[in-house]
Amino acid sequence: MSLAAVRSLGSARRLRTATELEDFEQELVDQYSLARAASGVTDRTVAGERQAVCGLIRGAGRPVWAIGTEEVDRYLLGLRRDGLTRLTVHNRAGVFARFFEFLIARYQGDIHALTGYLVTQPIDEYNRPNSSDYGVARVPPREDEVETLFAGWRASLPQTRKYLPAARDYLAASLWRRVGLRMTETVMLDIRDWRPDLGELGKLHVRFGKGSRGRGPKTRLVPAIDSVGDLLEWWLTDVRYQFGDDYDDPDAPLLPSERRDPLTGRCARIGDDALRAGLAAVVDRWLPGWTGKLSPHGLRHYCASTLYGRGMDLKAIQELLGHAWLSSTTRYVHVLDDHIEQAWEAANQRVATRLSEPVR
Fold first, then answer.
1. CA-based nearest residue to 63, from 112, 12, 101
2. What domain count does the chain have?
């Protein structure tokens, strides 16, 4: 992404025409985009925030410096009525809050001198939507249910009409289930990212981990625990070469599409929609009670909960999943945290022991 050259806002001047007002408004948006790029956020994030701010300005029908809580209330309500998810609306509100904080901190004086308006923060505790999953426990399937799903899937692979994509989807879902990879992390793996020479079990080099606040990918090494190494050896030895002759190219995608890249003629990288569809189809067949409810991210939650249930400490799970904050990890595993039940049992045992003692 490239940013347009922006003019200096350091010196105020009178704005006489509608065109000059529009140009000044555009300069403010440009300066915000430039500041966000300078802070290290990705081009994709900068472009998305710019689009969100421009959408608010168009929707409000007023200059940006004249937008208040009433206009933002109407706009956010319109987004919800248009079918946007709670999480999307929550994120848009966060963008708007940052943008107006930027205007107030850097250009409040210029804006007042040129327009007569004092910019106010239109996002407050009353209209800021809660995150869609705040306080919601994502309860994953039970271990026996997941075992049923993957056992049926694995047994059906040899008879599948399209064996190669079915095997690829099975591998991807196994990575979500066993080591909790995110979708983007999975599709962006290259063949060279499997490093069997690292550590006792080998490690996956995740180069496109989720960065905080859009600050680019965060890399990590994921140990091939829970038989992931065996799965990758099966994939690279028995399956991957059947997709094309790029199987020995370290820069080729680990999880390829059946389609070819029109420029190179080699395997294209699989997209997340295809992997989601592959999981949905087998869930519908082998675990119908979870149809429409079990997603790739749900298997990531299952991974964290299962490892926690087996005794892995939270810090290790945090590092495995690539969470910046331990609090994020606790939201993945709290459904299996039975310390309340254990305390209840211990309390009951103490009462029972005390009552059984002879009276002196």
1. 112
2. 2
- Residue 80 has which token pair? 């919800």
pLDDT score for 341: 66
Q: CA-to-CA distance for 340 and 320, rounded, in angstroms?
A: 26
pLDDT tens for each residue of 175-207 = 999 999 999 999 999 999 999 999 999 999 999
Cβ neighbours of residue 92 closer than 8 Å, sequence gap 6 or more: 52, 56, 76, 79, 84
Collect all residues with Cβ–Cβ distance below 8 Å to 287 and sequence separation of at least 6: 141, 145, 148, 149, 294
- Residue with structure tokens 């689009």? 51
Same-domain status, 200 and 317: yes
58-101: pLDDT as tens digits: 999 999 999 999 999 999 999 989 988 888 888 899 999 999 99
Task: Using DSSP, state whether 39 is helix, strand or coil.
Answer: coil
Structural domain containing residue 33: 18-115
For residue 98, tell me if it sits in a domain: yes
Average the pLDDT over each of 15-24, 140-149, 170-179 and give the range with the smallest value: 15-24
Q: Is residue 137 part of a domain?
A: no
E strand or H helix at 254: none
Q: What is the pLDDT of residue 8?
A: 45
Q: Is the whole-model pTM more than 0.85? A: no
Within 10 Å of residue 209's Cβ, how many Cβ atoms? 20
- Domain harbouring 161, CATH code: 1.10.443.10
71 and 201 assigned to the same domain:
no
Whether residue 291 sits in one domain with residue 192: yes
